[in-house]
């Protein structure tokens, strides 16, 4: 077991990593000892994934050191991390589907026979030995295609062991597994621990963490909060440490008397993604969809807006049904969607600011079917100025703007359609604090003007500051509806993680 | 602020468009000076007739390539409509009926491409290579190795004739008209805006309410219809309906479009550039043919132009990007 005086297998010391102006990790430190399973927990965006990528050699840290067996190492490539004995098992395994299980395990270090050919018998023996060590049964001869996610993870683990990995990093390995599969994975992890390997386990599920891990490191906003033995921490204490931030007056939502129901979603269903989603939004209301990444929030709003289809359920705006699978119909009904991914969904990066702002309205702006530039330019200028967007020329490609100004262009584009229902998905992701406050003020103003606002957000302070009501989603279902008065970070996080709502 | 106004305006006019227009002018001037018979009114007529099918088909092809797709079946559509035209004429239908039917046939063939690309979500390269073979094969089924030649002079002479006593070919008027329509639609209508948006980022276009599949489907229909019209004009020009009419023409069309500055990756391009590309390609071919260069050698020229036109804009873009980075760095340091 972990002993403070022993040399850790792997030690992370004050690792710092920034992307542009965004500090993703601001000083993460924790040791990993042989024979322990160590949980790494934190909210979305706390910096866990960045730490994983630093360990995997995908990102090079800007500062701090990694030590393996007490010796500092510097990984320039994933290959170097692998050579140092660190293997990362991702949520979505990356096997070659058309190669056999044994070939996947041996990939990159095929045993060769006498004449330089691949020694298939040796490959098979190695795979069988590894599976025996892990206590699982997988046929080494079958192709990787068609294996369940759980089996694919097992193969990934076998592959890591075949590469002499001593540190296994598992990034949310259980997210796609059933209960039985989780149990088997845990058995494998326990076997590895007994063998003297160290496992870094990332999960949002507290029951798994307490069942499997000996120690837990908590991160928040890119910084290290604490590393403690699991028995010293209660679940509520972990949640408090994960979310415990000062809630300033940064997110002012004006109080508005809600009007008529504008958006009514009922029984919305999309097979395998979300099911039975029902909610209403009144004029002047801001309703937040909270939940963990992958809980189905973005998928719900995309189906409401018609970018994705739906398998069942209805969407009404002002009492009129909106046709499924047609953004056109949704726009005609008065809906607007500011999507999650600005670069891929919100904007056409190569096109000018002007063209981007007027894209949804080019038909309405044309005179006699023609667009001669003047109307587009005036419209674009009006809305970008209203949002105080900073740019050189309306003809510049929108990709030349900063993230915050790009987000303002997306907002301008949709506000220009004068929506009755504004859906915003992660409206302030990756933008600076000042612009964030502007976006929040704008949403509040819109609500005051009688727009029904639906906000998907992973930032709890934003959710709590802006929303009149919070709908919490977990695994494709709305699991809780919390009024503004009752909403607290703990209540939302508990619901999002499946711990039930606490008063 | 006011100092960088001018270069910004300049940079908006695509340097490639400017270059291609200059090169075309130079080639025209050199050909007029150095090649015997190039500058004659008679040759001007031939030149226009030579470039007519390429130019016509290049118009919708420009739209298709800007959306990020391609239509390689156009020359086979031309061949099939030509064969059907001959066959229907043999059966005694009047030309006034046959011509609209042929354009309609082209539209239907285009719809087949559109269906496979938008409904079955197959890559357009594969689909239109398939229909390239399929339509050409059908052309041979319809007409075999034979040719139909006895078309009424009133039709054939209109295609090869000029306006009154001027050297301006009748078909040039048709071409200018269609090119003007295509230019306006591409650069000054909501449809044109959608075409560029789809080519630059299809997902964002969809999120903006653009009906991407519908747009692409109709572009293929128009592409087929125009190829059908080109088939009619081709047949009447040579007064010969044959299954192998226009064989390999799709390469010349794609070369002209890319030469005209349209990005093979979609999202970029302009119609004036494409027209210059067509003129450049046709002029080179015409001048070389007048200089007794063989058809095989002409194919070499087409191939080289195609590769150059894909290579150069990419080189140019990375060069300019490098320059911009350097300028930014200098600005930041000062």
Automatic annotation (TrEMBL), chain A:
Coiled coil: none
Annotated keywords: ATP-binding, Cell membrane, Membrane, Nucleotide-binding, Repeat, Sugar transport, Translocase, Transport
Molecular functions (GO terms): ATP binding; ATP hydrolysis activity
First and last residue of the signal peptide: none
One Pfam family recorded for the sequence: ABC_tran
Annotated ABC transporter domain residues: 10-246, 256-500
InterPro entries: AAA+_ATPase, ABC_carbohydrate_import_ATPase, ABC_transporter-like_ATP-bd, ABC_transporter-like_CS, P-loop_NTPase
GO cellular component: plasma membrane
Recorded topology in the membrane: Peripheral membrane protein
Annotated SUPFAM superfamilies: P-loop containing nucleoside triphosphate hydrolases
Subcellular location: Cell membrane
Main subcellular location: membrane
Keyword Cell wall biogenesis/degradation: no
Nucleotide-binding among keywords: yes
Entry-linked PROSITE patterns: ABC_TRANSPORTER_1, ABC_TRANSPORTER_2
UniProt cross-references to PANTHER family, sorted A to Z: CARBOHYDRATE TRANSPORT ATP-BINDING PROTEIN MG119-RELATED (PTHR43790), D-ALLOSE IMPORT ATP-BINDING PROTEIN ALSA-RELATED (PTHR43790:SF3)
Protein name: Putative L-rhamnose ABC transporter, ATP-binding component
Biological source species: Actinokineospora spheciospongiae
Automatic annotation (TrEMBL), chain B:
One MF term in the entry's GO annotations: transmembrane transporter activity
Gene Ontology, cellular component aspect: plasma membrane
Membrane-crossing segments per the record: 12-32, 44-65, 72-92, 98-120, 132-151, 171-196, 217-236, 248-266, 273-291, 297-316
Keyword Membrane on entry: yes
InterPro entries xref list: ABC_transp_permease (IPR001851)
One Pfam family in the UniProt entry: BPD_transp_2
Membrane topology classification: Multi-pass membrane protein
Main location (coarse class): membrane
Localization per Swiss-Prot or TrEMBL: Cell membrane
UniProt KW keywords: Cell inner membrane, Cell membrane, Membrane, Transmembrane, Transmembrane helix, Transport
The protein, known as: Autoinducer 2 import system permease protein LsrD
């Amino acid at each position: 077991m972990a002993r403070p005086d022993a040399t850790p297998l792997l030690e992370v010391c004050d690792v710092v990593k920034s992307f542009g102006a965004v500090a993703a990790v601001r000083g993460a430190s924790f040791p990993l000892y042989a024979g322990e399973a160590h949980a790494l927990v934190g909210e979305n965006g706390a910096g866990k994934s960045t730490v994983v990528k630093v360990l995997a050699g995908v990102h090079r840290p800007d500062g701090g050191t990694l030590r393996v067996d007490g010796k500092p190492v510097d990984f320039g490539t994933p290959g170097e991390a692998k050579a140092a004995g660190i293997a990362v098992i991702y949520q979505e395994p990356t096997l070659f589907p058309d190669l056999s299980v044994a070939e996947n395990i041996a990939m990159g270090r095929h045993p060769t026979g006498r004449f330089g050919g691949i020694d298939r018998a040796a490959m098979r023996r190695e795979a069988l030995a590894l599976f025996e060590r892990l206590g699982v049964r997988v046929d080494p001869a079958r192709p990787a295609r068609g294996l369940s996610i759980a089996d694919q993870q097992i193969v990934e683990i076998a592959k890591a062991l075949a590469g002499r990995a001593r540190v296994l990093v598992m990034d949310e390995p259980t997210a796609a597994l059933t209960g039985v599969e989780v149990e088997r994975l845990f058995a494998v992890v326990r076997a590895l621990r007994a063998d003297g390997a160290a496992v870094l386990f990332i999960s949002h599920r507290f029951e798994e963490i307490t069942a499997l891990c000996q120690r837990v490191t908590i991160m928040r906003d890119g910084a290290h909060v604490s590393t403690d033995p699991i028995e010293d921490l209660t679940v509520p204490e972990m949640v408090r440490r994960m979310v415990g931030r000062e809630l300033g007056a940064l997110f002012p939502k004006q109080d508005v008397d809600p009007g008529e129901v504008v958006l009514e979603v009922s029984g919305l269903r999309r097979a395998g993604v979300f099911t039975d989603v029902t909610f209403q939004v009144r004029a002047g209301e801001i309703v937040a969809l909270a939940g963990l990444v992958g809980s189905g929030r973005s998928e719900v709003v995309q189906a409401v807006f018609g970018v994705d289809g739906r398998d069942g359920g209805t969407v009404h705006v002002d009492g009129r049904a909106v046709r499924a699978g047609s953004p056109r119909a949704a726009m005609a009904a008065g809906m607007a969607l500011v999507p999650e991914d600005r670069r891929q969904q919100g904007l056409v990066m190569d096109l000018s600011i002007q063209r981007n702002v007027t894209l949804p309205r080019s038909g309405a702006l044309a005179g006699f079917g023609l667009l001669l530039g003047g109307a587009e330019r005036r419209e674009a200028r009006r809305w970008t100025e209203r949002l105080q967007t900073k740019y050189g020329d309306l003809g510049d490609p929108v990709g030349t703007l900063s993230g915050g100004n790009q987000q303002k262009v997306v907002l301008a584009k949709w506000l220009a359609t004068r929506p009755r229902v504004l859906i915003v998905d992660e409206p302030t992701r990756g933008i600076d604090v000042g612009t964030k406050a502007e976006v929040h003020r704008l949403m509040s103003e819109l609500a005051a003007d009688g727009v029904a606002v639906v906000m998907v957000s992973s930032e709890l302070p934003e959710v709590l500051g802006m929303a009149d009501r919070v709908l919490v989603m977990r695994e494709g279902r709305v699991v809780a509806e919390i009024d503004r008065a009752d909403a607290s970070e703990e209540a939302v996080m508990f619901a999002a993680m499946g711990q039930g709502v606490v008063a | 602020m006011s100092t960088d106004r001018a270069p910004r305006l300049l940079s908006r006019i695509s340097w490639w468009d400017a270059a291609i227009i200059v090169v075309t002018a130079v080639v025209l001037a050199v050909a007029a000076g150095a090649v015997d018979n190039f500058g004659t009114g008679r040759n001007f007529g031939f030149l226009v007739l030579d470039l007519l099918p390429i130019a016509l088909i290049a118009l919708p092809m420009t739209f298709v390539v800007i959306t990020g797709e391609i239509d390689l079946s156009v020359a086979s559509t031309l061949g099939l409509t030509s064969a059907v035209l001959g066959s229907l004429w043999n059966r005694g239908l009047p030309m006034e009926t046959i011509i609209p039917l042929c354009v309609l046939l082209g539209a239907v063939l285009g719809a087949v491409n559109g269906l496979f690309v938008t409904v079955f979500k197959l890559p357009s390269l594969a689909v239109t290579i398939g229909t390239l073979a399929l339509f050409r094969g059908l052309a041979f089924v319809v007409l075999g190795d034979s040719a139909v030649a006895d078309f009424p002079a009133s039709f054939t002479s209109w295609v090869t004739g000029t306006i009154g006593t001027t050297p301006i070919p009748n078909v040039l008027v048709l071409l200018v008209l269609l090119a003007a329509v295509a230019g306006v639609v591409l650069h000054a209508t909501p449809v044109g805006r959608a075409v560029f948006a789809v080519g630059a980022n299809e997902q964002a276009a969809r999120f903006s309410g653009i009906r991407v599949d519908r747009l692409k489907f109709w572009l293929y229909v128009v592409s087929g219809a125009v190829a059908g019209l080109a088939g009619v004009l081709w047949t009447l020009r040579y007064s010969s309906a044959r299954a192998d009419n226009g064989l390999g023409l799709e390469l010349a069309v794609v070369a002209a479009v890319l030469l005209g500055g349209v990005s093979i990756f979609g999202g970029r391009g302009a119609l004036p550039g494409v027209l210059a590309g067509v003129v450049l390609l046709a002029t080179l071919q015409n001048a070389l043919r007048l200089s007794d260069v063989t058809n095989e050698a002409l194919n070499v020229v087409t191939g080289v132009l195609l590769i150059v036109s894909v290579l150069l804009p990419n080189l140019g873009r990375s060069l300019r990007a490098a320059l911009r980075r350097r300028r930014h760095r200098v600005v930041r340091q000062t």
